[in-house]
Specification:
InterPro entries (chain A): Ald_DH/histidinol_DH (IPR016161), Ald_DH_C (IPR016163), Ald_DH_CS_GLU (IPR029510), Ald_DH_N (IPR016162), Aldehyde_DH_dom (IPR015590)
CATH architecture of chain B: 3-Layer(aba) Sandwich
Order of helices and strands of chain B: EEHHHHHEEEHEHEHEHEHE
Number of helices of chain A: 14
Protein name (chain A): Betaine-aldehyde dehydrogenase
Number of domains of chain A: 2
CATH class of chain B: Alpha Beta
Strand order of the largest sheet of chain B: 7-6-5-8-9
Oligomer: heterodimer
Number of strands of chain A: 18
Radius of gyration of chain A: 22 Å
Strand order of the largest sheet of chain A: 13-14-15-12-11-16-17
Domain Aldehyde dehydrogenase (chain A): 30-476
Shape of chain A: globular
CATH class of the largest domain in chain A: Alpha Beta
CATH topology of the largest domain in chain A: Aldehyde Dehydrogenase, Chain A, domain 1
Number of helices of chain B: 10
Largest sheet of chain A: 7 strands, mixed
Strand content of chain B: 15-25%
Organism (chain A): Prauserella flavalba
Largest sheet of chain B: 5 strands, parallel
CATH superfamily of the largest domain in chain A: Aldehyde Dehydrogenase, Chain A, domain 1
Structural class of chain A: alpha/beta
Family (chain A): Belongs to the aldehyde dehydrogenase family.
Radius of gyration of chain B: 20 Å
Shape of chain B: globular
Distance between the termini of chain B: 79 Å
Helix content of chain A: 25-40%
CATH topology of chain B: Aldehyde Dehydrogenase, Chain A, domain 1
Chain lengths: 477, 289
């Protein structure tokens, strides 16, 4: 039998329309930030993509003031029907520029082009389209007649889904009548600044959206700024706790979407081939840089050997490499720092006695890559079972009874997501009822939709994004 | 009955895990009426009592959150029934604690009874109001249900010793959460009597635990406790609330936003308190043949 090799199928990087420099967006204009410029790097090649101007404390102040002016003078007074049309325009502009945004996202983030093209960008557009429709229907959202916006929202987003997280933040804020100052992640600021251009093309009133690139110190400036009414943060639990502490005792509202250590529970009656696809999607999607990744596989003891065999075979067929190649399944780790963290935790797994298996796939010499890895014989006490790795590393544990599966799944301070694989409907609902997690996927994994609320229990944060429920975080109710 | 009969005075104790223990610390403090006349010695709860109460509340959570909404509604209604039978006693305690004329105290008690009834009716409706079937763009059935967040620490209002207390505890129970309550420090007697009502109202042991003592002392322990999921800082006062909120950040607790001063508890509540103690859970399943 002959084997057919894949031919390279790279998307053209020219489509990204990469510019040598990008600048902060404040009060409807691109301005020279007075912070130290940063260089955004392509994690797949380690080459510098562009120089990005960053905000200083005074730029943050200017952005908050611009947002306040826009709130007082334009946005809060505008009828919902008109606000809605701006959001519909933005949704359309994202769709029109989707190819450019997808390529740029892949260059800046390292994720496979098929993911940015088929998931990140279309879902970002969908979020604006969905929330646009809410802008003039808030009376029907279940928070009483005429619910009021909060004012100026400070929003801080992570590097794993740069444009999509921006959409999750900005779309509901604007639909409910707030204005925003958003800080993209230090390593992935580019699509947010193209989004700023889209705001200009949509003729959005100046100051309604402000984008201030920078590192954690600029995030802290935003969190602590007295002119901010609401903070929305997506990122690590560690930083989330710092933010919650910072805003304690102030009138600022807060929503947090933090880390996770999701259990993906596979029962012995599950369709195993389908489950394997779901497990792979759960932990290797976006290089495992997903807060709701199914990073703990709980397999029923009677099927664990068969499951592991199928899983290892399937993972060994995943193609790792050039994120711009349309056949690539696993792209680059977003930064050297993150790669070091993944390596450190992986080494701890070996040191603590878990059995490591790593895909024999070729790994490019340049760029930040990590071959998909599966640990078996994992104990609950091990760091790889407790800590969020945020990389393509799966920890496999076992259970015998449904009650034991629930106990192990819930044995974590997190509570963002969980997965269930079984053919038995009553067991799915029994499990879904008992899993302490904000999102439960049964016989599927990693599904997202603007109509479906997303967010965590416990130390995975509070508040929801999406759906009617998601509006609450931006309304004074 | 002879006029010179010596009455039997009640020992006011804590309510933890369905029992009435003294404070583990052995401490008590004198409670007076609004004019300064001695009423009783109340148990002065300690950090250890807080921890015991959290253990009891956690143990009770699976059963209470897993009970049917209909069942929880009936239990809450039963609390109202039991309170109704003790109206005179509650009115006397509220009048003494808050210095109210007896007619006013009576109407406060009536409002407290009615509040249980109001929340009893919510248990089997709130999921309909806050839940959803999500029209996702794909071949999946997706629904969202609100579920109880867990153990809630409640620092009850300092002024309104009964109506305020019921107004902050009943919504916790209605959602299926369990509670560790610190009563008003200077006006704790109605809270202890309410505990006796709860103990005889089919509320399972540990679902509500009532500690008498100082919110300023006990609140930070509740706020930093790793097995408490949410906290209502009402009774901590504006300064104490800042410390509570800071402590709560260490475990990402839900901290209720409360007004600076105690609100008018006689006003009809809305469902904001129910919302705060509920976690929307979204479930997905593929559709296909």
């Amino acid at each position: 039998m002959s084997t057919w090799e894949y031919a390279p199928a790279p998307e053209s990087r020219e489509i990204a329309g990469l510019k040598p420099t990008y600048r902060p967006f404040i009060g409807g204009e691109f301005v020279d930030g007075t912070g130290e410029p940063l260089k955004s790097v392509n994690p797949a090649t380690e080459e510098v993509l562009a120089e990005v101007g960053t905000a200083s404390a005074s730029d943050v102040d200017a952005a908050v003031k611009a947002a306040r002016r826009a709130y007082d003078k334009a946005w809060r007074r505008m009828p919902g029907t008109e606000r809605a049309k701006y959001l519909f325009r933005i949704a359309r502009l994202i769709q029109e520029r989707s190819r450019e945004l997808a390529v740029l996202e892949t260059l800046d983030n390292g994720k496979p082009i098929k993911e940015s093209r088929d998931a990140d960008v279309p879902t970002a557009a969908a979020h604006f389209f969905y929330h646009a429709g809410w802008a003039d229907k808030l009376d029907y959202a279940g928070f009483g007649p005429d619910p009021q916006p909060l004012g100026v929202a400070g929003q801080i987003i992570p590097w794993n889904f740069p444009l999509l997280m921006l959409a999750w933040k900005i779309a509901p804020a604007l639909a409910t009548g707030n204005t925003v100052v958003l800080k993209p992640a230090e390593t992935t600021p580019l699509t947010a600044l193209v989004f700023a251009e889209i705001c200009q093309q949509a003729d959005l009133p100046p100051g309604v959206v402000n984008i201030v690139p920078g590192a954690g110190d600029i995030g802290a400036e935003l969190v602590n700024h007295a002119g901010i009414d609401k903070i929305a943060f997506t990122g690590s639990t560690e930083v989330g706790k710092l933010i919650q502490r910072s805003v304690a005792g102030t009138p600022k509202r807060l929503t947090l979407e933090l880390g996770g250590k999701a259990a993906n529970v596979v029962f012995d009656d599950a369709p195993l081939d389908q489950a394997v696809e779901g497990i792979v999607n759960g932990i290797f999607y976006n290089q495992g840089h997903v807060c709701c990744a199914g990073s703990r596989l709980l397999a029923q003891e009677s099927v664990v050997d068969e499951l592991l065999e199928k899983l290892r075979y399937r993972v060994s067929t995943l193609r790792l490499g050039d994120p711009l190649d349309k056949n690539t399944d696993i792209g680059a780790i977003n930064s050297a720092e993150q790669l070091a963290k993944i390596r450190e935790l992986t080494e701890s797994g070996v040191a603590e006695g878990a059995e490591r298996w790593t895909s024999p796939c070729p790994v490019p010499e340049r760029g930040f890559f990590f071959a998909p890895t599966v640990f078996s014989n994992v104990e609950q006490s091990m760091r790889i079972a407790r800590e969020e790795i945020f990389g393509p590393v799966l920890s496999v544990l076992t259970f015998r009874t449904p009650a034991e599966a629930v106990a192990k799944a819930n044995n974590t301070p997190y509570g963002l997501s969980a997965g269930i694989w079984t053919e038995k409907g009553s067991r799915i609902l029994w499990m879904a009822n008992r899993l302490r997690a904000g999102v439960v996927w049964a016989n599927t994994f990693n599904r997202f939709d603007p109509t479906a609320p997303f967010g965590g229990y416990q130390e995975s944060g509070f508040g929801r994004e999406g759906g009617r429920t998601g509006l609450e975080g931006y309304l004074d109710v | 009955m002879s006029d010179n009969r010596i009455s039997v005075a009640k020992t006011y104790k804590l309510y933890v895990d369905g029992k009435f223990p003294r404070s583990e610390s052995g401490r008590t403090y004198p409670v007076t009426d609004s004019k300064g006349t001695f009423l009783a010695n109340a148990a002065h709860a300690s950090r250890k009592d807080v921890r015991d109460a959290v253990v009891a509340a956690r143990k009770a959570f699976d059963g209470w959150s897993g009970a049917t909404a209909y069942n929880r509604g009936q239990v809450l209604y039963r609390v109202a029934e039991m309170m109704e039978g003790r109206r005179e006693q509650f009115a006397a305690e509220v009048a003494a604690s808050e210095g109210l004329p007896s007619r006013k105290a009576q109407s406060v008690v009536d409002a407290a009874v009615d509040r249980w009834v109001w929340y009893a009716g919510w248990t089997d409706k709130i999921a309909t109001v806050l839940g959803a079937a999500n029209p996702v763009a794909g071949p999946y059935f997706s629904f969202t249900v609100p579920e109880p967040t867990g153990v809630v620490g409640v620092l009850a209002p300092q002024e309104s010793s009964l109506l305020g207390l019921v107004s902050v505890v009943a919504p916790v129970l209605a959602t299926g959460c369990t509670a560790v309550v610190v009563s008003s420090a200077d006006r704790p007697l109605p809270a202890v009597t309410l505990s006796e009502v709860l103990a005889t109202s089919d509320v399972p042991a540990g679902v509500v635990n009532v500690l008498t003592g100082r919110a300023g002392e006990l609140g930070p322990w509740l706020a930093s406790h790793g097995d408490v999921n949410a906290i209502d800082p009402t009774g901590a006062g504006p300064v104490g609330r800042v410390e509570i909120a800071r402590e709560a950040a260490g475990t990402v607790k839900r901290v209720l936003a409360v007004p600076e001063d105690e609100p008018d508890w006689t006003r009809r509540p809305d469902i904001a308190r129910l919302r705060r103690y509920l976690e929307p859970k979204t479930v997905w399943h593929p559709m296909g043949v």
